[in-house]
Amino acid sequence: MPTAPKWVNDALEKIAPSMLRMVKVEEIFYLNPCIKKVRLRGDFSALHFAPGFVISFRVSPTELRHYTVSQFDASSRTMDFIAHIHGDAIGAQYINGLMPGNEKIKLAVLGSDKQYDSKVEKQIIFGDETSLSLMSSFLPYLQQNQHQYQFLLELDDENRDIPEKLRLENYRVYSKNDLFRDKDQIHTIPHLLENAWSDANIVLTGNVDSIQNFRKVLKENKHKGKIYVKGYWMEGKKGL
Question: pTM to 2 decimals?
Answer without folding.
Answer: 0.93
